[in-house]
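Good morning,

Attaching, inline, the backbone tokens for the sequence recovery test we're adding to the shared suite. The designed sequence is right after.
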């Protein structure tokens, strides 16, 4: 929501990006090895992945698959932050914690409250 400007404008105290353009700039900072148009496509893919994984996890459908996807996405994000931004950034935002939590969720043998468990 922040990257779409729904939580405030860029520079607001509680906003990280504030609009899509600033989000794309940050994405390009995290992927300096890619051409800008390719990094912009990666920003779209990451946003779509975040949305899909969040909905699947909240609804309780395909939890293992969504948790693995969330783990891979957040791990890639954390490593990019660590290498290309500031080594403290992934720790300040607990990105490694989110990544590890997703991996932990993926390793559970059963999901009692999931849609699949209700069949």
């Amino acid at each position: 929501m922040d990257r779409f400007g729904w939580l405030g404008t860029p520079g607001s105290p509680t906003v990280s990006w504030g609009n899509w353009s600033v989000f794309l700039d940050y994405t390009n900072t995290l992927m300096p090895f890619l051409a800008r148009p390719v990094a912009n496509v990666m920003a779209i893919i990451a946003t779509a992945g975040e949305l899909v994984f969040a909905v699947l996890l909240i609804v309780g459908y395909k939890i293992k698959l969504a948790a693995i996807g969330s783990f891979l996405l957040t791990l890639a994000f954390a490593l990019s932050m660590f290498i290309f931004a500031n080594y403290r950034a992934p720790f300040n935002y607990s990105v490694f914690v989110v990544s590890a939590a997703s991996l932990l969720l993926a390793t559970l043998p059963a999901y009692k409250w999931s849609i699949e468990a209700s069949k």
